[in-house]
C-alpha cells in the first residue's frame, strides 16, 4: 500500500510580494547591464515569463498570461528587449569626420614588400591591429600608382622572398 502526501498552498499577498521583488531585482540587473552598453531605460521593453503548473497537473508550461485557475509557479524570468535601431547613431562618414586621429607608435617590425608598379622591394612597417586601437593613423611607406591589371587603380603588392 502506498501513502500519498498531499500538500495544498494558496497564493498569498506575501508570496505575490516575494515574486514581485524577485522580478524587480531581475529587471534592475538587466537594466544596468544594458545601460552599460549605451541603452537608455526608455529604449527597453520587459516581458515577464513564468514556468507554471496548473493545479492538478504535473506538466510545467511557459506562460506570459494571467491565469483563470490556480497555478503553481516553478520559476520566473524576464526578457529585456531593445533594438539597435532605437539608438540614435551617427553615420559612418560622420563618425569618421568627428574622429580625433592620432599617429601610430613606431612599428617594432619591418618587412620587405614588392610592388609590380616599378618601385620594386620596399621596407614597410608591420602593425598588429589589436595593438593599434581605434582612431589611429598608421602612416605607410606604400605608394599606389594605379597601373596594374586588376583595374582597381592599386598596384599589386607581395612579400619579397630572399
From TrEMBL:
<protein>
    <submittedName>
        <fullName>Uncharacterized protein</fullName>
    </submittedName>
</protein>
